[in-house]
Design brief:
There is one protein chain. Strands 2-1-3-4-5 form a five-stranded parallel beta sheet, with helices on both faces. The longest helix is centred in the middle third of the chain and has 92 residues. 54% of the residues lie in helices and 14% in strands. The chain is an alpha/beta fold and 455 residues long. The C terminus is likely disordered. The relative contact order is 0.08.
């Protein structure tokens, strides 16, 4: 049984079969619908991995069907690919605006189809799109990056202390240069004032050195006062610069202490998170194995129903009991839907009016009717054996699992598509479609207490 299913919605039988042959090469199980309404009805009971939607069909067209599929939360995440002869950027933009992932031509090349399936994760060893999201493993990676950033900031802050020290030293040097420049300027001004008050150079003035020395002595107290003021200002500036440097160093030390404390706390959280991840990985691994076993069990069962047997007979009861045990081990909560798909067989009736399979060599147009004798059953209870009904009554009392039974007619291709011209070929195809389909519907919240639902 294929692990992936594709729904082909097209009113053309030739187009359906052509695409089905291409998809079969990639191990996809293909189901069909001839109209948009038929596709929506099918998706009410079944889920598929991808939908190929024709544009022009009787009734609801392809774009209307895509809009309805994307509006339903149950089917909104199924990728839809328009499979049509329409072209043009306007049509492609309209299809993608309604939720389609793209447009494929009816005469699609196998390589193009493979690339599309590969992008959707439907070919290859495993499906893509699985993301750690906000899992503990991802959060641990983010936490490691945060630790790296903390260490980088620590290195930057240590460098900051060196930069502050160098800036203070540069400021001190500039201050000394400004003081020396001010001293030179004051001395220049004093000299200019002295020269301005000197009398004009004459022979008599040159002969009076005592007068010049007296004038210089009169100016000396003013020069001394200016120099003293400059020295006091320089000392004040130097003291303030030293105080600012010490304050900056204390702040750098406090920041380094806070950073070291934060890094320590971060490392402790890292250790606790690693332990939590190990515990989570162990639990997730155990649950994953249980889930795999349950799915493998469901997929490996021979769920074909012989023509003359009840769909829900004693053998089906044994399989249902085993499935419920595996779901209980998985702690599954939700609904299990068992759908009996009754295929239309080529039937004749004997002298007493009892329907039976037609002779294999009988021409197909010689069938008295195409159908299944159990289609006329009044209720699904008539299709159960006592053993199967007993299993339903023993479903867990905590209401964690609800079992729903359903019956519908299996869809078979037209005789021309099957290349069937006799009853034997037709009934062989019907026997392959006469089966029980299992569907799981997990619930996100605990279900109300009940035993089983049967319809």
């Amino acid at each position: 049984m294929a692990f992936k299913r594709a729904l082909v919605v097209d009113d053309s039988a030739t187009a359906r079969q052509s695409l089905a042959r291409l998809l079969a090469k990639y191990d996809l199980e293909v189901v069909f619908a001839e109209t948009g309404e038929g596709a929506l009805e099918f998706l009410q009971h079944e889920l598929v991995d991808v939908i190929f939607m024709d544009h022009t069909m009787p009734g609801m067209d392809g774009l209307e069907a895509v809009s309805a599929i994307k509006a339903n939360p149950r089917t909104a995440m199924i990728p839809v690919m328009m499979y049509t002869t329409k072209e043009g950027e306007v049509y492609v933009g309209q299809a993608r605006a309604l939720g389609a992932v793209g447009v494929l031509p009816k005469q699609v090349q196998p390589g193009v189809l493979y690339e599309m399936l590969n992008k959707l994760g439907l070919v290859g060893e495993r499906r893509r799109g699985e993301s750690d999201g906000d899992s503990p493993r991802r959060r641990l990676t983010d936490l490691a990056e945060e630790v790296d950033r903390e260490y980088e900031q620590r290195a930057q802050s240590v460098s900051l202390q060196t930069v502050i020290t160098r800036l203070l030293e540069a400021q001190h040097q500039r201050l000394r240069a400004d003081i020396l420049s001010g001293q030179r300027q004051v001395a220049r001004q004093v000299l200019e004032e002295v020269l301005a008050h000197r009398p004009a150079q004459t022979g008599a003035a040159a002969a009076e050195p005592d007068r010049r020395r007296a004038a210089a002595r009169d100016r000396w107290p003013a020069v001394t006062a200016v120099l003293a003021a400059m020295l006091i200002a320089a000392g004040a500036f130097a003291w303030q610069a030293a105080a600012d440097r010490d304050s900056a160093r204390r702040q750098v030390a406090e920041l380094a202490a806070d950073r070291d404390q934060a890094v320590g706390a971060l490392r402790q959280r890292n250790v606790r998170l690693e332990a939590a991840v190990r515990d989570h990985d162990g639990l997730a691994s155990a649950r994953g194995r249980a889930a795999l076993e349950a799915l493998e069990w469901a997929l490996d069962q021979n769920l074909l129903v012989p023509f003359e047997a009840l769909p829900f007979d004693d053998a089906a009861a044994d399989r249902l009991a085993e499935l419920l045990d595996k779901l209980a081990a998985l702690d599954f909560r939700g609904r299990v839907v068992l759908t009996a798909e009754l295929a239309p067989f080529c039937l004749t009736t004997d002298a007493s009016g009892i329907p039976a399979l037609a002779e294999p060599t009988l021409p197909l147009d010689g069938c008295e009717w195409l159908g299944h004798p159990l289609e006329s059953s009044d209720s699904v209870a008539a299709l159960q054996s006592p053993a199967f009904a007993a299993v339903l009554d023993d479903v867990a009392d905590d209401g964690s699992v609800t079992v729903t039974l359903a019956v519908r007619r299996a869809a078979l291709p037209a005789a021309a598509e099957l290349d069937a011209d006799d009853a034997g070929t037709w009934n062989h195809a019907a026997a392959a479609a006469n089966r029980i389909r299992v569907t799981f519907q997990p619930e996100s919240k605990p279900a109300p207490a009940n035993v089983a639902a049967r319809r």
